[in-house]
Structures are given as structure tokens and as C-alpha cells.
Amino acid sequence: MYQEIKKEIESFGFKVVSHDFERPWGGFLVIDESQAQGFSNKFFKGIDVNTQKIGGKLSPKILIVKPNSRLSWQYHNRRAEIWQVYKSTAGIIRSDSDVENEMEVFTEGDQIVLQQGERHRQIGLD
């Protein structure tokens, strides 16, 4: 599955500069930062990447979350994040504190904006 997704992303012309498929919840692909605007054009309706950089840097990634797996509770002090569900469905739990709220379910094409400082957890649903 992971290699198929990697090949699909590369078929769009993106250079995968690193990957990790050994996470308990799945894995991820890191795309060459010089392709960030093209990545945004393909997956995020052309959001201007210059408005998203932190300290002059942007890290385009693709997370692959196994069904019924969950990432750890995340908290980003320095940046916001924008996610898009590329395939299948995903659940997101958000909170302004460490108390987890109800899970929101997102489907293919949905975009999720996570505010700077917002706590969140991603869950693979199917």
C-alpha cells in the first residue's frame, strides 16, 4: 500500500525526499520543499505557500494513516496546519485544552485548518 501511494505521488511529478513507513499508525512522505507551490496547486486549490511558511520554511507531507489507527495528541506552538483528505475518510479530534472533544469526520477532498496552538489527533477510519 505505502509503495503504491509513493509511486502515485511521484507520477504527479513530485520528488519524495524522504519517507517513513514504520510508524505504528502508518507512515508519511516528505515532498521536496522546492515543489511546495505545485503541491499546493495539486492538493490545496493553489493556496499561496508564501503565506504558510514558518521561518522561511515549508514542509509538504503526505500522511498515510492505517484504518483504526490514531496519531498521538499533537500541539504546534509555532504554526498552523492545513490538511486535505486525499483518499478515504479521516477523523479529527480538536481541543483548546487537553480535554478531547467529539471526533469530526472528513471525507475525500475535505480540507481541515488547524489553528496555531490548537491540540489535535488524527484517526484513520477506513
Task: Summarize the topology.
Layout: H1 2-11, E1 16-23, E2 26-31, H2 36-43, E3 61-65, E4 74-75, E5 81-84, E6 89-95, E7 103-107, E8 111-114, E9 119-124
Care to describe what's here?
This protein is mostly beta strands and 126 residues long. The protein folds into two domains: 1-65, no CATH class; 67-126, Jelly Rolls, CATH 2.60.120. The chain is built from two helices and nine strands, in the order αββαβββββββ. The strands form three sheets. It has a four-stranded antiparallel β-sheet, with no helix packed on it. It has a three-stranded antiparallel β-sheet with strand order 1-2-3, covered by helices on one side. Strands 5-8 form a two-stranded antiparallel sheet. A hairpin with a 7-residue loop joins strand 6 and strand 7 (103-107). The radius of gyration is 14 Å and the shape is globular. It starts with a helix and ends with a strand. The model has no long low-confidence stretch (mean pLDDT 85).
Overall pLDDT level:
85
Uncertain runs are none
Q: Overall 3D geometry? A: globular
Distance between the termini: 14 Å
Number of strands: 9
Brief summary:
The protein has 126 residues and is mainly beta. It is built from 2 helices and 9 strands.
Question: What descriptive keywords fit this protein?
Answer:
Jelly Rolls, mainly beta, 2 domains, 126 residues, four-stranded antiparallel beta sheet, globular
